[in-house]
Design goal:
Layout (H helix, E strand, L loop, with lengths): L1 E5 L5 E2 L6 E2 L2 E14 L2 E13 L9 E3 L14 H14 L1 H10 L6 H10 L10 E10 L3 E8 L4 E7 L3 H10 L4 E2 L2
Parallel strand pairs: 1-5, 7-10
Antiparallel strand pairs: 2-3, 4-5, 5-6, 7-8, 8-9
Helix pairs in contact: 1-2, 1-3, 2-3
Length: about 180
């Protein structure tokens, strides 16, 4: 299924200086993939205008209009499709996730899914009752790091450079309320 879309607004705000401009510099088309509809792949063709910034002091001389909720700079997928693929990636990752995405009518390769996992924000430490730590070698005899683990959930919390006690003490000062486990 193909949808043809264009923005209705007569002007757009410059991302550099936030000043609005109505001077159209050029036009082009973008193709975006979206969530499937009725088990069929969806393609959205967006007619995009490129505006000339109205401020002479702005470092950004031209800019493309963005449609909120539909387009993001340089993206080839809509935000809802990107978040759905990120959920598939977090559940299955690589090849299995790629196979499932193909069955769901949103084919993508395993590298895209891995990239979406890496783009996810790292969750904060939160509340930790018992903290475990161990050092490990990055390169045997030359460089070491310390991994910290939440002993209740058995999930990694942080990786500290080196294996000195001062680094661990500084981390514990930044995270009060953590009880060190054996």
């Amino acid at each position: 299924m193909t949808f043809w879309v264009r923005a209705r607004a007569g002007d757009a705000a410059c991302p550099g200086c936030r000043r609005r401009s109505a001077r159209v510099h050029a036009r082009y088309q973008r193709q975006l993939a979206d969530l499937p509809l009725g088990g069929r792949r969806v393609r959205i063709i967006v007619h995009v205008r490129r505006f000339k910034c109205a401020s002479p002091r702005c470092a950004q001389s031209t800019f493309s209009e963005q449609i909120p909720g539909l387009t993001t700079p340089f993206a080839r997928r809509t935000p809802p499709l990107t978040s759905a693929l990120a959920e598939v990636a977090l559940a299955l990752a690589g090849r299995p996730g790629s196979r499932l995405a193909g069955k769901l009518a949103v084919p993508c390769c395993r590298d895209v899914l891995i990239r979406l996992i890496r783009a996810q924000p790292v969750p904060g430490a939160g509340h930790i009752d018992v903290l475990g730590g161990d050092d490990f070698a990055i390169r045997r005899g030359q460089s070491y790091n310390t991994i910290l683990i939440d002993m209740d959930s058995h999930k990694p919390v942080d990786v500290l450079p080196g294996r000195e006690s001062g680094t661990l003490a500084a981390w514990l000062r930044e995270h009060p309320g953590v009880i060190a486990g054996a």
